[in-house]
Amino acid sequence: MFLKTSNAVITVVAGVGVAVAVYWILNKIAELLPGHWEDRIKPYLYILPAYAAITLYLIYPSILTFKYSFQDSTSTEWVGFDNFTKLLSSHEFQQTLINTLLWMIIVPIFTVAIGLAVAVLSDRLGPRGENVSKTLIFMPMAISMVGAATVWRFLYAYRPEGQEQIGLQNALVVLLGGKPVPWLQQDQFHLNSLLLMVMLLWAQIGFAMVLLSAAIKGVPVDTLEAARIDGAGERQIFFRVVVPQIKGTIITVFVTTLITVMKIFDIVYVMTNGNFNTNILGVEFYNQLFTNFNNGAAAAIVVMLMVAMIPIMIYQVRNFKAEEAA
Amino acid sequence: MRVHKRGVKALTAVAAMALGVSGLAACGGGGSSSNDKTVEIWMSVDQPVFDGLKKDMTAKAKDAGITLKMSKVTDINSLIMTKIQANDAPDIALIPQPGVVANIVKRNKAIALDDVVGDKVKSNMLPGALEAGTIDGKLYGLLSSANVKSLVFYNKKAWDKAGYKAPTSIAELDALTQKIKDDGHVPWCMGIESDTATGWPATDWFEELVMKYGGADKYNEWVTHKIPFDDPLVKQAGEEFEKLVLTDGNHIGDGKTIASTGFGDAENSMWKSDPGCWLFKQGSFITAFFPEDVVKNFATDVGVFGFPSANAGEKAPVLGGGDLAVLLNDSDAAKTGMKLLAESDTGNSAAANGSSYLSPHKDFDSSLYTNPVIKVSDQVVKNGSELLFDGSDQMPGEVGAGSFWKQVTSWITGQQDLDATLKNIEDSWPTS
A237 is in which domain, residue-wise? Predict the structure, then answer.
């Protein structure tokens, strides 16, 4: 234990020391340059290690993944588009795509809508009520998704008819005289997928609420007063005055949630592992890589996700720039 | 003001970068400091089995002059592949899935054991125990701790009162099931829910019936895909499973109940004085999931018989599994460690401490077993023709840990019929 701790301390100290030395040397090099060249070159020298890190940790793995997606399961032979055609032509993968798409549509919309509603309504409460309700709604954010799954299992748990129900939902159903329902297996209208989405909503709404609430509080009061004097109703004020002024925040929340959803893995993995027609891309990727040891198929899934994510990222970055300019 | 702000930004950037670089340095310093005499062994066996093996191995390692580093790890199947790809693997790993062993061999990271352990050890293994670890004629995975899955548990008190008898053929098992049903009871306890591995208990049923109907050769051909997955033999097995267990009234609830009942919870209601279900087919390890008071009164409360052969009096293969020791480093110390692990008496302590350890060696002293289920398992194996390794564990991951589980689950929950299920699994078999 002592050895481990001292090792850690030494590496951290040495690491920081080396980093400082690197910047000091880069700075010295820049200072050696004549006059205005020093000012021109210096920023680039400072940003160089950051670029190097991004290249090493982000760009290089991306290129490698791209390459793997055209190779076989052990990444030794080229197979062309085989990985993609095999995946896309399988009925189950198509279902996986449909499920993922459902997640991408439903979760961000509801996160924004409910988050906005909570933000507006809690704004109307007294300071104490506002704090309490916001804290309660924000709390799930502090729980890891795997931990949340443990909680939610007790909501959806199912025992055969006649045995004691340990799940809250089924206990209610039985209390009202119904038959217990295996909730996570109800795939008509993707009900089970929707039940899993509720879990993410539960965890994400706090985040949306905090950002949107701050934005709403930032709306200048004089614009609201002006609208009131002009005779606008509360609904009109909300949709015509408040919403346009917090549009930027709404888009940011929407896009961040969308990106979270595209990467979602833990909820589905822990609750159903993609069984009963609840599979999504994140879980399929994991299973391809760690159950099937199929590097090719796993990389192909990541490439598809990356391609789908690029336009969203571009939109997000543009949105940020527009915000900053405004 | 502006200048000051930039200064702060630059400082933050430097600090952030410094941390990043130090993170890198920490990674570089993480290598193991093993010397030539240290042997690192990883396994994922139950804690009591681990304790027993560790005790014997530690004593032997001392005499052999090697330093032992034995660790119990979780999720060894995916962990070991990651470690192998990172060139950071232990010297020896005990892997429960032959499919994973095959994957290691495919990547040329395993060392053949034939010359390491020698013919004496090999000929001393239980019949069938070498097949699962043999790839292209060479032994890569040596069975080190076995388990038996061809067991049927029952509530002894209730059973004796009702006057039921253990069947000796599948026809008799059919008759017994019918009799229990006619007596107004539910014959089978069945649950296939197992978190991310949901479905596996049902695949055991297929394997059991395929080997009982088709014999060892046909079974091995099916497992290695020399005959298609949807061969008539497999269909016969599926239909028998459906008739015995999946028929309405032969189990609690409906198909969806089976799919949402934990494999370890399925037998919960069996121990009541008026059992909720009467027969429970599971592996020797399942006793860990039995209620505490049942385990305490094991001898009086729990009955167990071996799954019957197709015809009475026939010596049939027995379904089992276990952990295969794979050598990942060809140093002399690692080979010594492997040899010690392969000795019959390395399991003595594990057998004596009441764990679920079952020795794969013929000359192991059966009187050492203290766990009653293991005693029965030992008998079942010795009365059978050979011990055959769990088929789904031997199949490629796509099938054995993927489509087989998932498709059978879909079948049981009524999303598709048996023919479609078998065909989907056949289609999912990887081409290379």
Answer: 82-141+200-325
